[in-house]
Amino acid sequence: MLEIKNLHAEVDGNKILRGIDLVVRPGEIHAIMGPNGSGKSTLSYVLAGKDDYEITEGTITYNGVDWSEMSAHERAAAGMFLAFQYPIEIPGVATMTFLKTALNAQRKARGEDEISTPDFMKLVREKSKALNVTPEMLRRPLNVGFSGGEKKRAEILQMSLLEPTLCVLDETDSGLDIDALRVVSEGVNQLRSPDRSMIVITHYQRLLDHIVPDVVHVLSKGKIVKTGGKELALELEKNGYAEYVDEEAA
């Protein structure tokens, strides 16, 4: 279980998160919505342990373990996965080499043997087919020359291989057309499990038509200002965020 208490964080001395309280139980999907600049991506980076994102107050615990002082790779080994809004291209790093290295690093952290090359190739073929990740994509350097949809599908493939227990999707719908959104969402939904929690960060209801959340939160000026069910996302789609921004400013 993820438990965030009174989380305050800043970047380069700028206060971004101003007291977030959040509990995500195993098997739950929580959507976090809010206007630009509300702190959504900052929250994802703080959870992942990104450098330069400093926790100034409050705690993050996952399965009873305090994450506040843990590094990004330690959090990843503990089950954390962050899907980026804009996955980066890494020329010179083969996609298959990257995937195998990442998977074996996680297996080593869990005390498991490294996966053999034949078993790895079989696993990738099985999982990539469902996500429409082609063999040609897998032969390229990581994300190089990929469209927005291809980058997101490759990232969900990575998530599927690593099998994290806490997935944070930072605006996964950015840059996706309708067909790519459907494919990526189906890949995410295949990973839904009683033992896996997800936080889905988005501006728009359209993603939540495909990845239906259990709980929706509105984030404004670094605080969660309203929490509700999936119908809250429909309300936001209809009325926008002005009401909550004004509430926080009052």
UniProtKB/TrEMBL annotation:
One of its GO terms (molecular function) is ATP binding. The keyword Signal does not apply. It comes from the Bacteria. InterPro entries: AAA+_ATPase, ABC_transporter-like_ATP-bd, ABC_transporter-like_CS, FeS-cluster_ATPase_SufC, P-loop_NTPase. Transmembrane segments: none annotated. Keywords: ATP-binding, Nucleotide-binding. Belongs to the ABC transporter superfamily. Ycf16 family. This is Putative ATP-dependent transporter SufC. It comes from Pseudovibrio axinellae.
